[in-house]
Amino acid sequence: MTDLHHTLLTLDSHIDIPWPDRQDAWTEDTARQVNVPKAIRGGMRAVCLAAYIPQSSRDESGHVEAWERVQAMLDVICEMGGHHNGQGARVCRSASDVRAAYKKGDLAVIPAIENGHALGGRPERIVDLAQRYGVRYMTLTHNGHNVLADAAIPRKDLADEETLHGGLSALGRDTIAAMNRSGVLVDVSHASKSTMMQASGISTTPVFASHSCARALCDHPRNLDDEQLDRLKDTGGLIQVTAMGSFLKKGGGGTVEDLVRHVSYIAERIGIEHVGISSDFDGGGGIPGWKDATETVNVTRALVAAGFTDSEIAAIWGGNMLRLLEQAEKAAEAT
Ligand SMILES: [Zn+2]
């Protein structure tokens, strides 16, 4: 079993980085749930690291601040490439880069953005960030509506009503077109249902949810309901079940077994090719059985115990996400 785990290209599709940066990505003995030594020790082979932009005011000052912060965070993520004490990390721009890093035994780092607020209301900036940093996905929102789209969880402290745009704004639609052209996946985690349904209708590359769970099993606004899951199936999208106790079990307290219960439910409803895994480590994630990157083998154990075959586990653990990244790359080349 441990043998199987260490043959897998395990890809965790959502991890935050501490901010402000503490320059501790290579130091094993810190409170961080994921750093290079912990990931390598735990057999976590590829990580999507998110530059997380908190939602702030939807005006010029909020937009200037967000644009500066996203570049500073992506600078830090992209500086992680290199070798220290016999361990390596490689910043990856493509699925083939990820496979090459895996073959060498290096940790694959895939840059991502959490919250389209980062663009400061200028859709074309995603093209620039994709070119400069190799950004591969961006959530349209965080908690709180932004100028692109409505969020699943409005922010009363920012004077949010239940809805601002009724889903996507015109700017949000332009942003999705720019993301499609640049090979940046449209991430609908944190987006409202109307935003998600509209985005899946206009995006030329299937949308995905980098860190969400199944609402049928746990009624939380951050989870996707059956209609949304069916839409992912119809459009070729993907949902990456996440290790957030309160999304896994009503009232909280979800465990690694609950995480696999969500994976099984989604696989049965829409097919194994539409489901994967994420931790949301260093962003609030972490559950009994998978509290940091060093315990990643327990997820594989629970998948085996739930009856998945080795090839199914390989698809869930990264194959599906790599396929989607490749699809986005091909679509970008074709434009
Ligand atoms: Zn999040």
Textual characterization of the structure:
- The chain is an alpha/beta fold and 335 residues long.
- It has a single domain (10-333), classed as TIM Barrel (Alpha-Beta Barrel).
- It has twelve helices and ten strands.
- The chain has helices at residues 2-5, 36-42, 60-78, 95-104, 125-133, 170-182, 193-202, 226-235, 245-248, 256-270, 297-305, 310-333; strands at 11-16, 46-52, 82-84, 87-91, 107-114, 137-139, 185-187, 208-209, 238-242, 275-278.
- The strands form two sheets. Strands 1, 2, 3, 4, 5, 6 and 7 form a seven-stranded mixed sheet that branches. The protein has a three-stranded parallel sheet with strand order 8-9-10.
- Strand 6 (137-139), helix 6 and strand 7 (185-187) form a beta-alpha-beta unit.
- Residues 114, 190, 211, 283 line the site of zinc ion.
User: How many distinct folded domains?
Assistant: 1
Report the CATH C-level class: Alpha Beta
SS strand fraction = 5-15%
Q: State the helicity in percent bands.
A: 40-55%
**Order of SSEs, N→C?**
HEHEHEEHEHEHEHEHEHHEHH
**Pairing-aware structural class of the strands and helices?**
alpha/beta
User: Count of DSSP helices?
Assistant: 12
The CATH H-level homologous superfamily? Metal-dependent hydrolases
| Spatial separation of the terminal alpha carbons | 44 Å
Low-pLDDT windows of residues:
none
Q: Give the rounded overall mean pLDDT.
A: 97
Could you list some keywords that capture this structure?
single chain; 335 residues; alpha/beta; TIM Barrel; seven-stranded mixed β-sheet; three-stranded parallel β-sheet; 12 helices; 10 strands; globular; binds zinc ion; Peptidase; Pept_M19; metallodipeptidase activity; Metal_Hydrolase
